[in-house]
Amino acid sequence: MRFDAEQEQKVGRAIRMAEMEARDALFGIEAADEILRARPTREERTRAGAVDRLEQAVLAIRNKSRRSSDPELSAIAALASRHWEEAETLRWQLAMSAMRIARGEARKLSCSLMAEEDLVQEGYIGLLRAARRFDTDRGIRFTTYARWWVRAQMTRALETAGRMVRLPGGAVEQLRNLQRAMARMDQAGVSYKLEDVAADLGIDIQRANLLLSHRGIVSIDQPDDDGLKVGDRIPSQGADSNPHDNASLAEELGHMESAMSRVLDARERYILGEHFGLYGKDPRTMAAIGKSMGLSRERVRQIEGAALKRLRNNIGLVSAT
Asked: Would you call 9 helix, strand, or coil by DSSP?
């Protein structure tokens, strides 16, 4: 259910009215007055702070009435609770009227750090936070106001829950911009170097390499494309290791490190290193590499094939130098 501007204003005013009636019901109750009239801290001098104090007052009187045999106090608590629940129901309706914003922002921010559906759920939390703070007196639409809370909630989730190693918000944004730019060029079939992409985005090349090196960090309990956990693929101490299907090619690549550094760009070196388990790493499937880079398995295969071909064509020249 979507609300137009007039409906948003109407629901917003109904929320304020329900809150005022809950506050009026508590008027004169000492325990509630102590909470409502307490001098707010700097963080509480907002509409959200006032709503939080009202909720605390309602809950305090409700709990007090349960411990008391005073019928008048019980009636006051019931009346205040009813108005508060009405306000909560209206806030829920207002938030859910903008569900499309959560899905739209999730599509924009979706990356390898967090699944799109998880971002949508974080977006719903942002909508509820926005509904708690929405003020009709500001003269703006709820959908306009809520979009920023949705994006902030999703970004915060990407910074924390989306990865094992936490990155600052600015770094997450830069990594996402890098992945988007690389994906656009991949889809267009345009050849590029990481240095050029980083320069277009105003990111230092060393920082770009550092950001890309952190994008594939996962938990050992996270299942992979085959349904197995990463930890399940780690052999126990003393266990026999299975030879890689492409062991001979991996050995050949091990002797090509100097060629790789001179002939290939950072993305190609990363794909080869991950796929063939170079530099002390375990080999990864193309699907897993593509997922960490935001690319399809087929695109990773194409990049790897082109990189191997260029290596074979230039290995003699590099060796001679």
From this structure: helix
Q: Could you give the CA distance from residue 114 to residue 27 in angstroms, rounded to a whole number?
A: 47
Instruction: Please give the single-letter amino acid code of residue 42.
Output: R
Q: For 198-235, what is each residue's pLDDT tens digit? A: 888 888 888 888 777 765 544 444 444 444 444 444 44
Second-level CATH architecture of 230-234+245-320: Orthogonal Bundle (1.10)
pTM recorded for the entire structure: 0.53
Q: What is the largest CA-CA distance in the chain?
A: 96
Q: What is the pLDDT of residue 218?
A: 41
Check if the beta carbon of residue 187 is closer than 8 Å to that of residue 296.
no
Q: Is 310 exposed, middle or buried (0-12, 13-18, 19+ CB in 10 A)?
A: middle
CA distances 55 to 52, 61, 188, Å, are 5, 10, 53
Query: Dihedral, CA atoms, 60, 64, 70, 72, nearest 10 degrees?
Result: 10
DSSP state of 259: H
Domain residue limits, the chain? 5-96, 99-159, 169-213, 230-234+245-320
The pair phi, psi for residue 239, each rounded to 5°, is -75, 150
